[in-house]
C-alpha cells in the first residue's frame, strides 16, 4: 500500500463530509439519540445498564453499515471509483482510505455515545472507559468494513438498504441482545458463534462488569478486528475497473 494515496483518499472523503452535514449528524448523533430514547423507555438506570453494552455495539455497527454502503455505492454509480481505478492506485489503498475516513467519524460517534451513556444516562461500568471506547470503536469499524464490502453487490441505493437484513439484522437478533446465546437452539447458537457482532457484545459486556483484561476479552477483540480486516480485503477484491 502507498501511504500518501491512502491519506489522500481519506482527505477527499472527509472533505465531502464537510459539504454533507446531514450525513455527519446522522452518523455522529443517531446512536446517542437512540440510547437516550431507550434509557427513558426502560425508565431505570439499572435496567439500562444491563442493556447498554449490547446497544453500544448494535447502534454504531448498524448505522455505520448503512451509511458506508450507500455512500460508497454513490461513488460507484457516479463513476468516481471508476475514474480513480484508471489511475495506478492499489485497490487496498482506496478501501483502507475509505475505512480510515469513516473510521474517524465512527470514533467521534462512539465518543459521543459513550460520553452520553456514562455521564447523563447513568451507565455504570466496572472497567476502563477508554477500553469501552476502543471496543465500541472496533465494532463501528466492523460495520464500516461490512458496508464497504456489501456496496460491491448493490446497483442502486435501494438495493444497498436491502442488504441490511442480510448483513445486519441476523447479527442483531443472535448477538445476545434479546436472549442469552447459550439459551438458543443449537443451530442458532452455532450461527451466533460465527457472527462477529456477538463477540463485540460479549467484549462490551465484560468491560462493563469487570476491569480485568482476560484472555477471552482479548480473543473477542481479535475476532472483531480480524473480521473487519477480512471484510476490507474482500471488498478490495470486488473492486472493478469498470462499473457495470
TrEMBL record:
UniProt entry keywords in alphabetical sequence: Antibiotic resistance, Cell membrane, Membrane, Transmembrane, Transmembrane helix, Transport
Membrane topology: Multi-pass membrane protein
Cellular location(s): Cell membrane
Coiled-coil regions listed in the entry: none
Residues annotated as domain ABC transmembrane type-2: 14-242
UniProt xrefs under InterPro entries: ABC-2_transporter_component, ABC2_TM, ABC2_TM_bact-type, ABC_2_transport
Positions of transmembrane segments: 24-42, 54-73, 94-121, 127-149, 221-239
Protein's UniProt name: Transport permease protein
Organism: Lentzea indica
Amino acid at each position: 500500500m502507498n501511504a500518501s494515496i491512502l491519506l489522500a483518499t481519506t482527505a477527499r472523503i472527509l472533505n465531502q463530509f464537510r459539504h454533507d452535514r446531514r450525513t455527519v449528524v446522522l452518523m455522529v448523533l443517531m446512536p446517542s439519540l437512540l440510547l437516550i430514547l431507550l434509557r427513558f423507555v426502560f425508565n431505570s438506570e439499572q435496567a439500562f445498564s444491563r442493556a447498554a453494552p449490547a446497544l453500544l455495539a448494535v447502534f454504531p455497527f448498524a448505522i455505520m453499515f448503512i451509511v458506508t454502503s450507500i455512500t460508497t455505492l454513490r461513488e460507484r454509480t457516479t463513476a468516481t471509483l471508476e475514474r480513480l481505478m484508471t489511475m495506478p492506485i492499489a485497490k487496498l489503498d482506496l478501501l483502507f482510505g475509505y475505512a480510515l475516513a469513516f473510521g474517524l467519524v465512527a470514533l467521534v460517534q462512539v465518543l459521543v455515545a459513550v460520553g452520553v451513556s456514562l455521564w447523563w444516562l447513568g451507565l455504570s461500568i466496572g472497567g476502563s472507559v477508554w477500553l469501552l471506547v476502543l471496543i465500541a470503536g472496533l465494532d463501528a469499524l466492523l460495520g464500516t468494513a461490512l458496508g464497504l464490502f456489501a456496496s460491491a453487490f448493490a446497483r442502486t441505493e435501494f438495493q444497498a438498504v436491502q442488504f441490511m437484513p442480510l448483513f445486519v439484522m441476523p447479527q442483531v437478533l443472535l448477538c445476545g441482545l434479546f436472549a442469552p446465546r447459550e439459551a438458543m437452539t443449537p443451530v442458532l447458537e452455532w450461527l451466533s458463534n460465527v457472527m462477529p457482532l456477538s463477540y463485540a457484545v460479549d467484549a462490551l459486556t465484560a468491560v462493563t462488569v469487570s476491569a480485568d483484561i482476560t484472555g477471552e476479552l482479548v480473543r473477542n477483540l481479535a475476532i472483531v478486528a480480524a473480521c473487519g480486516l477480512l471484510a476490507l480485503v474482500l471488498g478490495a477484491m470486488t473492486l472493478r475497473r469498470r462499473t457495470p
